[in-house]
Amino acid sequence: QVQLVESGGGLVQAGGSLRLSCAASGRTFSSYAMGWFRQAPGKEREFVARIDWSGRVTNYADSVKGRFAISRDNARNTVYLQMNSLKPEDTAVYYCAASVLLTPTGRNDYNYWGQGTQVTVSS
């Protein structure tokens, strides 16, 4: 069982930056692939970024590629999402998730979810 707690959300102007953190409980954090998803009002939850257990392999949605960076610190049981050059369309609740699969391909491949943190980007 893994519990995930996101933090770092807030209100930022367009062009600004935020860093989200996701702290995980449990001793097996390093065995999970981790992902970030987001959900805007009236929209489905969508994939943002993914990182493998080692931190060496990352994947991004096209909409955030070049602006967002996912990383992890297995010693601290934490995964991060650095968000730069934020746009109003990045406004959403951001969720982190953990998967027992080596390469999860969709949100249904994730076993554990956090409660989310709100990110609001003003124009």
| Helix and strand pattern | EEEEEEEEEEE
Q: Gap between N and C termini, in Å? A: 40 Å
Overall strand count = 11
Average pLDDT over all residues: 96
**Any idea what the radius of gyration is?**
13 Å
Sketch the major β-sheet. 7 strands, mixed
Class inferred from helices and paired strands: mainly beta
Q: Could you say which overall geometry the principal axes of the C-alpha atoms support?
A: globular
Strand content: over 45%
Low-pLDDT sequence parts? none
**Alpha plus pi helix count:** 0
* Helix content percent band: under 10%
Describe it for me?
0% of the residues lie in helices and 48% in strands. It is built from no helices and 11 strands. The chain is globular.
Q: Could you give the topology of this structure?
A:
Layout: E1 4-7, E2 10-13, E3 18-24, E4 33-39, E5 46-51, E6 58-60, E7 68-73, E8 78-83, E9 92-99, E10 112-113, E11 117-122
Compose a concise summary of this entry.
With 123 residues, the chain is mainly beta. It has strands at residues 4-7, 10-13, 18-24, 33-39, 46-51, 58-60, 68-73, 78-83, 92-99, 112-113, 117-122.
List keywords for this structure.
single chain, 123 residues, mainly beta, 7-stranded mixed sheet, 4-stranded antiparallel sheet, 0% helix, globular
